[in-house]
Write a structure and sequence with these properties.
The complex is a heterodimer of chains A (120) and B (146). Chain A is of the alpha/beta class and 120 residues long. Chain A contains 4 helices and 5 strands, in the order ββαβαβαβα. Classes of the chains: A alpha/beta (120), B alpha+beta (146).
Chain lengths: 120, 146
């Protein structure tokens, strides 16, 4: 019954993009965090989480995403999200995540906006 | 709502140790919501709220039988109008009034970033009631079809 998360990392427009597929629970959240921290170690300061393949998240998984946001703030970086289902987006707004992380409708918009906000 | 008839009722008892028990429960709730022609977005909201209610039971109930009971009731006069979901555990209970509402500005700096379950349920459902005591905790959530 366990729905494990598949995670892939790629780059688009100079930004590291993490693509998720499946349920973001505690294990899925930890998996994302490990990948995010590896990217940070590789000097990536802007991360985009593309949730197109994720239809459900839980609060434990989101709490781990908040840890990543905290880390990004510490290093003066940015974490953003794109391609959220309306319910996941609503949940992020309920929690106030949009105050600390960009939420974009699609990857193209996200990459464009994130690049516009980066120092030249 | 009190005078509306129960048109359909499904009850499911699940062992809390089942991996991703919350997904099994949410799949049932989502099938019932779908059967009453609820919109896709509302079904997703119901699903996520059930996930959170079950996770709370799993993480905090300390229920001696290690089980959670999910009841989905379709209410209406003639046609389905409201989905009422009850999530019950026979655990130690808690004082819902003593649960502090989480604030992102505080959580982002705090070592413990958890504690969002009730906030998410309240934000996604039309109404959420929590009854908790020595006999356990019962979360009653409703969502209108339209």
């Amino acid at each position: 019954m366990t729905e494990s998360l598949k995670l892939t990392v790629d780059h688009a427009g100079g930004i590291a993009v993490l693509y998720t597929e499946g349920y973001i629970n505690n294990e899925g959240g930890e998996q994302i965090a490990r990948a995010a921290y590896r990217l940070i170690e590789d000097d990536q300061r802007t991360l985009l989480l593309n949730l197109q393949g994720t239809k459900i998240v839980n609060s434990i998984g989101i709490s781990i995403l908040i840890e990543i946001i905290e880390k990004m703030i510490e290093i003066d970086g940015r974490l953003a999200f794109c391609c959220l289902t309306p319910t996941i987006e609503k949940t992020f707004h309920i929690m106030g995540l949009a105050q600390y992380a960009g939420i974009y409708p699609d990857q193209e918009t996200a990459v464009r906006e994130l690049n516009a906000g980066r120092p030249a | 709502m009190a005078d509306q008839a129960i048109l359909r009722e499904v009850t499911l008892t699940l062992p809390l140790e089942t991996p991703d028990v919350e997904i099994a429960a949410s799949n049932t709730a989502s099938a019932i919501a779908e059967s009453m022609a609820m919109s896709v977005d509302k079904i997703d909201e119901v699903r996520m709220a059930v996930v959170e209610a079950c996770i709370n039971a799993k993480e905090h109930s300390r229920a001696p039988d290690r089980r959670v009971r999910l009841t989905c009731e379709v209410l209406g006069e003639r046609a389905p109008e409201i989905l009422r979901i009850t999530v019950h555990d026979s655990g130690v209970g808690f004082d819902p009034g003593a649960v502090e509402r989480p604030e992102i500005a505080t959580k982002i700096k705090a070592p413990d970033k958890r504690g969002w379950g009730l906030e998410i349920m309240r934000g996604l459902m039309d109404d959420v009631e929590i009854h908790s005591g020595a006999d356990g905790t019962t979360v009653v959530m409703t969502k209108a079809r339209g």
